[in-house]
Amino acid sequence: MSVSVNIPEELYLQAREIAESQHLSVDDVVSSAFAGQLAAWERLKQRAARGSRESFLAVLDKVPDAEPEDYDRS
Q: Percent helix, strand and coil across the chain, each rounded to 5?
């Protein structure tokens, strides 16, 4: 399947640089990066499905109610 996608020139140049160094086509590099990102989203979705609001709130209950140190203030 062929799809046209607009990407920033800087990303294209990075992909082209990687493609040249690895003796691949830019299409192969972009396809691989896209597949990796989709896999990361799927892992995130699976992790989110294992969590619960109750568990999250239980962990937050363990955090002490204290002011941050000076070096942690922004």
A: 70, 0, 30
